[in-house]
Amino acid sequence: MKLRALTACAAFFLCAPIFLSARDTQAEYTDSALNYGYADDLVYGLEAYKNKDWSNALFFLRKASGLSETSSEEIWLLMILTEMNVNDYAAVLRDADIFMRRFPSSPYIPNIEYQRSLARFGLEMYDEAAKGFSAFCENYPSHVLMPSALFWAGESLYRQYEYASAMPLYTRVVTEYEGSDKYAESLYRIELLKQREREEKLLYLLRVTGEEAAAAREEYERQIKKAESEETISLKRRVRALEEQLTALQTTYAEEKTQKEELNAKILELSSANEQLSAEISDSQKAAAELAAKKKAELLRQKTQVPLSAEELAELKRKAAELEKLLRPRGGI
Question: Reduced to 3 states, what is the DSSP secondary structure of residue 34?
Answer without folding.
Answer: helix
